[in-house]
Amino acid sequence: ETTPLITSPEHSVEGFVREFLRELNFTQGTVLERATTNDAYLALARTVRHYLMSRWIETTVDHYRAQPKAVAYLSAEYLLGRQLDNALLAADLEEIAAEGLASLGLDLAELRDAEVEPGLGNGGLGRLAACFVDSLATMSVPAIGYGIRYEYGIFRQRFAGGRQVEEPDTWLAGGAPWEFAHPEHAVTVGFGGHTEKYTGDDGVERSRWVPGWQVLGVPYNYMVPGYRNGRVNTLRLWSARATHAFDLQIFNEGDYVDAVRSRTFAENISKVLYPEDSTPQGKELRLQQQYFFVACSIRDFVDQLLPAGFDLRRLPERIVFQLNDTHPVVAIPELMRVLVDDEGFGWDEAWDVTRRCFAYTCHTLLPEALEVWSVELMGRLLPRHLEIIYRINEEFLAQVRERSGGDELLVRRMSIIAEHPQRAVRMAFLATVAATRVNGVAELHSQLLRDKVLADFAQLWPEKFTNVTNGVTPRRFVRLANPGLSGLITEAIGDGWVTDLDRLRELEPLADDAEFRRRFREVKAANKGRLVDVLRRRDGIEVDPGTMLDVMVKRLHEYKRQLLKLLHVVTLYDRITAGEVSVDDVPARTVVFGAKAAPGYVMAKEIIALINHVGAVVNAHPDVSTVLRVAFPANYDVTVAETLIPAADLSEQISLAGKEASGTGNMKFALNGALTIGTDDGANVEIRRLVGDDNFFLFGLTEPEASAIAEAGYRPSSYYEENPGLRRALDLVASGAFSDGDRGAFEPVVANLLAEDRFMVLADYQAYLDAQARVEAAYADPDAWSRSAVLNVARSGFFSSDRSMRDYLDRVWHARPLPG
Ligand code: 26Y
Fold it and tell me: What's the 3-state SS for 163-191?
């Protein structure tokens, strides 16, 4: 039994103001007259926290009492975005807070802007994790998110001479009002050392790990409030600290300064998020991060969330660990180690339990993105885990041999251990062998996983493979990001859609209602106005809100094909400056880019520079700039997305078919009433099927077509030779027109397109231009365009992450909500 809870502060303006002033005085140690914006923001955040606290404790206690099957989401990334607005929404405090602060002469909007978002992720995969924990809380599912509390999140991007410069993200510098440190629940994790054989009391030969060094994992808890359902789940992020033993030896040797310095070695583990996506670096520190957080999380679950003396044979009844890509896959040998070495399980018994505790989500199709760890590194950092992986592999391959009648080629292909170019552990294979379920993140992606990336495994275990199409949380990406549209929807169909997004269907008839469309356009215009203000204040960029907003925001990657969008811009510029097209005949558009490049990805950084240089020339041209402008605000993040997406008219989803696993930005745009120009790739396929062909601009090669061309030998230069428009665009870039006459400046980019063009930009160029011509024609009829836009909203309810969670619950987790 727990002691009765102190009740939440009173849900009224007076109650709120009292609590806020108390926080300002007693925690911030200041008074209203002297408080900085940051003081007021911190006091506000803590005030809101108080309203959620009793729900949080109750949720935790209920879970402990009921011991239901819980979901543990293991993710190296959580791209959370700002917390304040979401907490205000969940606690139903938006109006009370605005009014209460105003009565003190404070502006909620200004305090909101003081929050630095926790950017603890790179892109889609990290944002997906944040959407999923939001949905799990809102659906009252007993769930916990585990991850890493990076001291520095994704770098801040600025441009110098149009080139990307990275700066550290000091998100903790202003204070961290949303986190709760629990050093008393720290966990010890070992690394390195060696293994030794011994004979157990039962006479059985066993192996044990003698780590060479240890670090402490300190948990930091974050609230994950459900939307007005009385539930607050937990996100637990681990921070690395040095143990005392860590430096004791050096202390004893008498070198105090060295001893203190050595502590930073341990603390480096959670220091910084790796800014690479899609191309694994094979860095030792990264493997340390992965093992660190999963070892802490498993220990934590077993020691803190299960009752004392729990029979671990029954673990699969209580937990499913969802592996967010391969980053946490070392959790599999870790659970085996805990069960076999620490708990004395027999191997088969331990394997039976372990297998039933894990499910694996793959997020890629690019072969170079599949993580492998060299046996050398794995053996040095985690020697016992390597032994366990070898044994898992041995037993697995014996099974393959038996089933295939000794097909050694197949055995080699499926081995968890690759032999070339070096001996290495294939983490995706390990995950697939161990997991109860393996899923892709959109229908097409799951199909390609079965047919290509993991085909041998799908043959062996067809029932393991499933699809769960990604989703996004409607709370953050519609209700909070687009209050105008939310108001319009709620007025029409009530507010049930916020937690039941399929109800957006009820808007369908309103697509034919001229008055509704007019109001929809009004909302879009107001959102553009909001964006114009933000870009002016934040970036000094002037955007004309009367233009079509054509938006491409996502990580910079060749497969996503920002270059295809740029070639469209260059072609428009070329046609207008050549006098082939009159500015009177094209609708005015603003092309907005937002993208960070991995700091070591040279080509991606060149493309960023090229976009900025083309943009500068286009924007400076007296005629062209009347109908075409390029805006590339630096440091695209969740906060920018929240003002950019609701303002967009056109959503660019133009990856080469078969390369984008799903995309989730595509869903956010459709839900906010932008029309998509896109390829038949990832979740675009499902978006188009749902919104209808008439309301989606499809273009480009299909996956089978692209594969066939690649198979036959792709020759990009043939497209250059045969398409005069394309040739002129590329020649223009190569001529130095966008680099003050310097012909060498973007030579590598052009040369790569002509010689290799791995992602078939040139092959899809003409189809893309034709589709953009269809966009222009459609945009010329505002009534028809807004009809399509409304239909996009009405038919995109499927892309709620609540639906993704229902699918995981049914197909993967076999767990249930536990409403309060
Ligand atoms: C191994 C390491 C370098 C690494 C780090 C981050 C590898 C990959 C990543 C991130 C991948 C990622 O964000 N993938 C995206 O996941 C989204 C959510 O499923 C998909 O919508 C999107 O298509 C996919 O590119």
Answer: EEEEECCCCCCCCCCCEEECHHHCEEEEE
